[in-house]
Structures are given as C-alpha cells and as structure tokens.
Amino acid sequence: MQEYTIKRTTMEDKEIAHNHLDKFVGKWNTEGLVLPTATSAGIEVKGTDTYEWLPGGFFMLHKVDVSIGDDKVQTLEVIGFDKDASHYTMQSFDNKGNTGFMSATLMDELWIFKGESMLFKGKFSENDTVISGVWEQLNKEKIWKPYMNIKLTKDLK
Known about the structure:
Layout: H1 11-21, E1 26-34, E2 43-53, E3 59-68, E4 71-82, E5 87-94, E6 99-107, E7 110-115, E8 118-125, E9 130-138, E10 144-154
Antiparallel strand pairs: 1-2, 1-10, 2-3, 3-4, 4-5, 5-6, 6-7, 7-8, 8-9, 9-10
C-alpha cells in the first residue's frame, strides 16, 4: 500500500509567497541572447512572459511565449511555495511535450532558479520594472556554464 502526504499551506505562507512573487505579476517583454559557442553563433530571444495569480492566490501561473531564433517556445509553469523546504517549486510544461521541475530561492535580492541542468541568477531593477540575469547550463563535465543572457521589461500599458 502506497502512502501519500498532502502539504497544507497556511495564510502566513501565502503572505510570504505574495510578498516575494507579487513583483512578477504582469506582462513582460522578453529579450535575450543564447550565447555563441565555438561551433554556433548567438541566437536572439524575443517574446513575452506573463505572470498571474491562480484562484485562491496560493500558486502563480507563468506563461512563456518566445522565439529563440526560428524556434517557437511556449511554456506554462506553475509556481508555489514549499514551506517545508523553504523554497518555491516550479513545474513547467511546453509546446514540445517537455516537462520540468525547478526550485527557486531569493537571497539578498538575487533570484536563483535551479533545475537538473539549468540555473538562473537574476535581479529586479529600475523600480521593479526590469528583471535581468543569466541562465547557465550544466555541461558534460558537470560545470555550470553561461548559456543565455535574458532581460524582461514590464509592459506598463
């Protein structure tokens, strides 16, 4: 017999999540560059990211709609706060049938999103209307290497 545990989130946890995640709410214009390598040129990233609270306010929905060169990437991601682990959890689903899990932490205004092979480090700036940072990728030697520079600018319309 398999045993399941259900994690309950309290209103206090919800307030913590709101305080940190509220900055993300809205539509963002996304631009960036997949960094060039010895065998390939840099690739432009352009599109939008949208963040909104799901009903109840315990989870956030992140919608990605970008082009990476000629490749269209559309992703839905659900973000929530795991009080037992003291970090945010992120589960994503994309238009190519891929799924992924990441965790997110906030340390001294630095957001860190970490998955099995991808890592983001970035900050808000310009009165919380810009998010910029670097995505890193874990290489075959198990070393994190810069992969993509990214900048999201809030659409204030």
